[in-house]
Hints:
The protein is mainly β. The protein has one helix and 17 strands. It has one domain: Porin (Beta Barrel). Helices cover 1% and strands 52% of the residues.
Amino acid sequence: MQRVLGDDQDGTGFRSARLTLRGRVFTDIAYQAEIEFAGQDGADSPSFEDVWMQYNGVPYGGGRGFDIRAGHFKEPFGLDEQASSGDRPFQEAPLANVFAPSRNAGVMISDALFGEPKQERLVWAVGAFKETDNLPSSNDSDEDQGYQITGRLTGLPVYGDDGRKLLHLGVAASLRHPDGARLRYGVRPETRLSLLRYADPDSALLPNGFRLLDARAEDVVLVGLEAAGVLGPFWFQSEYMRSAVDTALGGDLRYDGWYASAGYFLTGENRVYRHDTARFGRPRPSRPLAIRGTSRGPGAWEIAARYGTVDLSDGPTYGGEHTSLSLSLNWYLNYNFLVSWNYIHNEIDHPLYDGDFDSFQTRFQLDF
Length: 368
């Protein structure tokens, strides 16, 4: 039985309100403590985001040495997921990021190789983690939820013109043993004001009477492929992610998702690449907006589009398919202040309901 989706509600809210403290102790020890006060996905506020300490430059066979980090931080998986939420060209992450593990507690080693400092061409990272609160799981962080090993390898086969010309390629994998934890993949639309997750294997009963939430996961294998490029003011970025789940009650399940995006800076700037972590940061306007003074400029203006889909139906599970088209207009008044407008068209195909809906949202962002 199907029904057409109704209207979602208008709304306003604080997407994020974070306080970050970072620095170094002597030369080799770095640290960061980031606290979120806005509360996200039903989490209590305030809550930890990135809270870690890191020793830089552990020697191994020459070079500057690898870094070792311990604490609560993002697992090395995915290109968009590694970016700070304030540095993305879209207000929200793509649908496919439902598979990305995001933050967990663990220990990770990493290194950037082959190139001058801050222009390295290859980055690798691998870590061991315990589930806390960012993988789709309903268990609390104080329960035994097994372990996971996650690694990422990226390279720059093309790099020149101080980063205005580059090609980024990467691959990531995660071997996860949830130790019978309940697994849930529910995709939120690319607007955080939406209250519903329309594509969700837990929204319908399985033929055997169980929900996916009850189909205890024995093992999970995540694989991610990523590609991105910059050519002057033009950029593109795309990823594919796949999750293979071995459950005790639902058998072997396979889910996947992908997106492709591209953008252009109308004022001539380019996306900024962070070589140490193989991700993109925010652009720096060549002529920041100034009300007073002689160096007045328009700031940086960027247009971008993204198309993506995620499929959460396999075997006895019927999570449905969610597809979205996002259009973004970003105005970077200066390096710290951004005003953005996003239009998102969503199409839902689910055994219990289907339809489409549109959303338009504006964000004011200050980061310093």
